[in-house]
Amino acid sequence: MNSITLTIPHLTQKGFLDLCQANQDIQIEREATGEIVIMSPTFPWRGKQNFNLSIQLGIWIEKTGLGIGFDSSKIG
Fold first, then answer.
1. Where is the Putative restriction endonuclease domain (predicted)?
2. Which of 25, 26, 31, 62 could bond to 35 as cystine, CB 3.0-4.6 Å?
3. Can you give the residue ranges of every domain in the chain?
4. What is the number of alpha carbons within 13 Å of residue 76 lying toward its C-beta?
């Protein structure tokens, strides 16, 4: 997935909320560092591929006990 990272000095919480509300079709995140990350959308076929890959990896982890799986969330 492609993303763009921006630094917008002095962007308030309200300013960030306004930005998100004005662009509801785009996934926008704010990192703990204050950087704004704009991610390209995942189209249905790519989402299906990612989901199936996660299933297979999860089955392998459960079967072998050789790992720990996590989703793609980041903790800032």
1. 16-73
2. 31
3. 1-41, 42-76
4. 9
Whether the model pTM is above 0.70: no
47: enclosing H helix or E strand = helix 44-64
pLDDT-derived band of residue 73, with 50, 70 and 90 as boundaries?
low
Lookup result for tokens 């785009």: 26
Here the tokens at position 35 are 């950087």
Q: What phi-psi label fits residue 34: left (phi over 0), alpha (psi between -120 and 50 degrees) or beta?
A: left
- By the 10 Å C-beta count (0-12 exposed, 13-18 middle, 19+ buried), 29 is classed as middle
What's residue 27's pLDDT? 87
